Every structure is written in C-alpha cells, then in structure tokens.
C-alpha cells in the first residue's frame, strides 16, 4: 500500500503545508511588473537617443583615449631628475664646455645680426636726412614742390 500512496494522483500537498507554513507566493509582483513596463517605456521613448549616444561615446573614446593616457601618464622620466647624476665628472665637464661653446656661438650670431640691423637702421636714417636736406635746398632755390609733395602723400596713405 505504500507504493499506492506514492503514485496517487490525489490533491497535491506542499511539503511545508504539513508543518503549518503558508505556501510561497510572491506578494508584490505588481511592483516588478510596473518597473519592467517603465523600463520598456523608457527604451521605447529614448531608444534611438541612447543608441546614438553610445555610438558617439564609443567614437569619442577611441579617438581620445590614447592622448588622454599619454597626458595622464606623462613622461617616464621624472622632471626633477638630474641627468648628470649618472655621468662621470669628465662627461659633466665636457658637457658644460660644449654648452658654453654653443652659448657663445649663439651670442656671437645674435651680436652679428644686431650690428647688421643697427647699421641698416643708421643707413636708412642717413638717407632720410639727406632727402630732407635736398628737399629743403630745392624749396630754398625756388624749385617746385611736386616731387616733395608727391612723396609726402605716398607716405601718408
């Protein structure tokens, strides 16, 4: 008879019912359904915007990620590290001599350019002075002012 009880198609009993427990039932399925439908409604309303936004962020990230990494990582060598720390005294002295030679060469080049520019400026000033003298002499001798006046108009405009 025990076998007949196992295969009996009678009313199903919950295992915890015998102990006096309530059957397990989801008491608030309406909240879950409302959240689900709210999510579906949001996707229906803003789905294309979300897709385009994600595509834009992906394109932006692929184009900017490498420069951002370089910017935030910086150089591998710290800025306050002295290069001469790993050199011998002879190397440091040779480097200082080479730097002094380069500085002197640059200073000589600058001085040469400065003297050329000052000579050119003096030459232009001398030409202007001679032109003024010749214009004054022409006015004193009674010649026409057309050439002088024409030159003055070109300078003004």
Automatic annotation (TrEMBL):
<keyword id="KW-1133">Transmembrane helix</keyword>
<dbReference type="Pfam" id="PF06936">
    <property type="entry name" value="Selenoprotein_S"/>
</dbReference>
<feature type="region of interest" description="Disordered">
    <location>
        <begin position="135"/>
        <end position="157"/>
    </location>
</feature>
<comment type="similarity">
    <text>Belongs to the selenoprotein S family.</text>
</comment>
<dbReference type="InterPro" id="IPR009703">
    <property type="entry name" value="Selenoprotein_S"/>
</dbReference>
<feature type="region of interest" description="Disordered">
    <location>
        <begin position="1"/>
        <end position="23"/>
    </location>
</feature>
<feature type="transmembrane region" description="Helical">
    <location>
        <begin position="35"/>
        <end position="61"/>
    </location>
</feature>
<keyword id="KW-0712">Selenocysteine</keyword>
<keyword id="KW-0812">Transmembrane</keyword>
<keyword id="KW-0256">Endoplasmic reticulum</keyword>
<protein>
    <recommendedName>
        <fullName>Selenoprotein S</fullName>
    </recommendedName>
</protein>
<keyword id="KW-0963">Cytoplasm</keyword>
<keyword id="KW-0472">Membrane</keyword>
